[in-house]
Amino acid sequence: MESRERVPAAGAGGGTSSRGGGAEPKPRRTAVDLAALPGFLAASALVAWLGSQATISNVTGWYATADKAPWSPPNWLFGPVWTVLYTAMAVAAWLVWRSRSPNRRTALTVYGVQLGLNLAWTPVFFGLYPVWGSAALWLALGIIIALALAVAATVLLFGPIRRTAGLLMLPYLSWIVFAASLNLWAAVNN
User: Fold this and answer.
1) Which InterPro entries match (predicted)?
2) Coil, strand or helix: which one is 190?
3) 3-class secondary structure, 69
């Protein structure tokens, strides 16, 4: 007969459990984990695609003749950089989602907030400038500052849950701070 150690269960009754307290949730199946990754990638791709809709017509419009920061990279570089960043963000969120951390819900909520701010910035910066002028660029600056803070919070929340997830978000944070400097230059000089 198999011997099992009886351990006091978590909770108020002080009863016993043969599962070591029963507080550990069952780990997700690998198939479910793998099936969720495309969902995280699709969410990032959707945000990227929606943002590109505001960018496409304006990159060759007002932005082509705008006064840009001397450190502004060539337009062709933005697409590849964002592709890498959105992919890294999705993988980071997926890694946190897979964890059994009690803090994952908060971390993923903050991740969702930063994704929403990311989505809001592009149409405000590129799409509203022809209508609102420099006021749109100042509003976009406020959004990207909030975005940088939300991404920093995401890094701080992801890191303790999955170190790799926090590290995957760092290039994105760096890029957002860089983009904020470009936004500030554009707001001051246009």
Assistant:
1) TspO/MBR-related_sf, TspO_MBR
2) coil
3) coil
Give the structural domain span for 108.
30-189
Does residue 1 fall inside a structural domain?
no
Residue 67: inside a domain, yes or no? yes
The whole-angstrom separation of Cα 92 and Cα 104 is 12
Query: Please, what sign has the CA dihedral across residues 158, 87, 120, 131?
Result: positive
Q: What is the pLDDT of residues 42-79, one digit of tens each?
A: 999 999 999 888 777 677 778 888 999 999 999 889 99
Which CATH number do you get for residue 155?
1.20.1260.100
Dmax (CA) of the chain: 81
Contact 136, 66 (CB under 8 A): no
Question: What is the count of structural domains for the chain?
Answer: 1
Instruction: Please give the span between the terminal C-alpha atoms of the chain, in angstroms, as a whole number.
Output: 81
51 within domain boundaries = yes
Within 10 A of 141 (CB to CB), how many other CB atoms are there? 19
In a domain, 17, yes or no: no
CB 172 within 8 A of CB 62: no
In a 13 Å sphere around the CA of 32, the CA atoms on its Cβ side amount to 7
Contact call for residues 110 and 93 (beta carbons, < 8 A): no
Strand partners, 154: none
